[in-house]
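Internal QA ticket QA-208
Title: Verify multi-chain structure generation after dependency bump
Assignee: T.L.

Test input:
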Amino acid sequence: MPLFLNDEQQMLHDTAKDFVAEHAPVSHLRGLRDANDPTGFSRDLWKSFAEMGFTGILIGENAGGLGLGHVEAGVVLEEIGRNLTPSPFLTTAVAAVEALKNTPHADRWFPGILAGDTVAALAVDERAKHGDAVSTRAERAGNGFRLTGAKQFVTHGHVADLLLVAARTAGGDHDSDGVTLFAVPRDAAGLTATPERLADASIAARVTLEGVTVDADAVIGEVDAGREPLDRLLRAGRAGASAEMLGVAAGAADMTLSYLKQRKQFGTLIGSYQALQHRAAHLYSETEVARAAVLKAQQLLDAGSPHADTAVSVAKAQTGLATTLAVQEGVQMHGGIGMTDEYDIGFFMKRARVLAEMFGDTNYHADRLARAAGY
Amino acid sequence: MSDLDTFRADTRAWLEANCPPEMREPVRSDADICWGGRNFQPSSPAQKQWLDRMAERGWTVPDWPTEYGGGGLSAEQTKILRQEMAAIRARNPLNSFGISMLGPALLKYGTKAQKLEHLPPIARGEIRWCQGYSEPNAGSDLAGLQTSAVPDGDDYIVNGQKVWTSYADKADWIFCLVRTSRESKQGGISFLLFDMETAGVSTKPILLISGYSPFCETFFDDVRVPKANRIHDENKGWDVAKYLLGHEREMISGMGLGGRGANPLVAGAIATIGLDADGRLADPLLRASIALFEVRAQAFGAMSERFIDELKAGRAHPAQPSMMKYYGTELNKTRHELVMAAGGSDALEWESERSNGGAVSRGWLRTKGNSIEGGTSEIQLNIIAKRILELPGA
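Actual output:
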């Protein structure tokens, strides 16, 4: 398979590009933020994502979805990134769908996701930095389990219908075995999701679980073997966040290049200065390399390759580097107006920071690759 | 099974049967690299056997047409062949500027007669080529070159000097940029081929900071070259030169990729520094530097794959080789800085047997030229800015 989009993927790209730019450009985010919108995204837009078929990209055709892959999901995510569109697409239609796929939970939750009604949130992180430890406990209670612990950085957690919660059913905090993944309705007794607005105006919840009781059928996959669906969730989430970041980088770079071609100082276009040209060309190079790494990861995920996990970490780490550079150069090359709230480039910087942190930052993934390589 | 699956299975079986075990060992020194040519002295019978077997199938140049000594393979088949060779760590049977640089330009701009004369000997490794581009006063500003070619009947008389001619002292033929008109800078350049044994050609190796002399100064004193050896029209040589430079940049960019399988940088660092109780490299700051470098190196591996796929499909931006060259060479310099840091004072030894004659430090110094030769990093960034990003001229 060549490492570029095929004709069908290119068509989806064109459709998504037009659709997102028309219905949810950066002004849409600005509007929600200025209105202090308590949801964090537009439910109408989520509905129209469903009508476009986007929410069913990773859902099999037998379940009413499109039966496509991570490349196609990434195509949509890149446009979400380019337009800074607030959307539950990544958590719900990508990460949650991957975790629930081929489990009994699919029948319950996929129809709502396909219809654009259901939102899922990922209650994975327990500390300020993403890591592999799981401390939240799930103890056997009657026919089910009782969950106790705290999670943070749970995007859309305050309005989600469903939370995917990683909890420990055996072993110590750092053990790989003994983790179980649960599907927990947000209205479960003892679950509190407190919304916190983040720097980029998105809303993530701090979630506390105080003896939340769930039935045995809330388990996703097998008890004590939740690493498997959790890893699927994380691989999809990381590849997806990389694609979205790539869109943020591309959007910031486009804005910056346009500015270099119109802003004059000393009577000349600033884009004619070699000092800025070289920085823009270096940024282009970093971003192109990141684009290749992201597509490689998506293709390997779709092929079910054993190398997908490594490729996903490479993609997340490299897009973290490239996108951080893109937004920093964006603000710097815009000069003073880059620091103003009125101008959009600052929104790109804030969104990039949130996505860089999500599911592990560049250092986390570089460390992960090093450990896998035996150093 | 699809046709490609069949091709993969057949290729795997053929390579298994025909690639000598010695040719699956890592390259340890220059002697392990096969450059071919009239004066080629194989370092082992296996090296010659591997070259001949691959050339016989046209697989030294798998995607060239069979009539010119190639394998006639499609882009997909070529990719499979490369993957299968990499899987058994087969050495490249033939390293050649004829393959990587001149060949593509001849295929595009040569006449049928020129192709038939030059391409099959390149494919078989019989003629070794060198490149006469840079001059003492024409480096980054290559089009300012002054070596002249004055018509004389059916010939040109060539006078002038080239510099940084890679392996000119070992090459059989040269492809050379000469000035045939002073009316126009880029539009006064022609592209000539001639035998290095022609009267009036002389070479002088340049000693580099690495202690090696891979480059020469090359002098032309009334060298008579038939006009039939000119590629493309008179004064149209710059088109050929630019096309060929794109291929040179691709080749140099590949240096950032490193090898597959065991990672020599990591293995070297572990050997010198060791692992701590948690299995991590015992120098945490060097470990972090290596890990972040590896992210870029692996991402660039994907970029190289993407670039080749786009190139074969005719979808690559014509200036994309500049990006590849810039990124690949800067990455390679970083790799060698890390190799030196990992090696410590062991890596500083210059002559000892233990250090294989200072291979690590000499290799490190050699990479410093990567971002200069074939157009400096700064020239590549200029090209990206103007041709890809379409930023305004100064």
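Spot checks passed. The two ends of chain B are 57 Å apart (CA to CA).
Status: verified.
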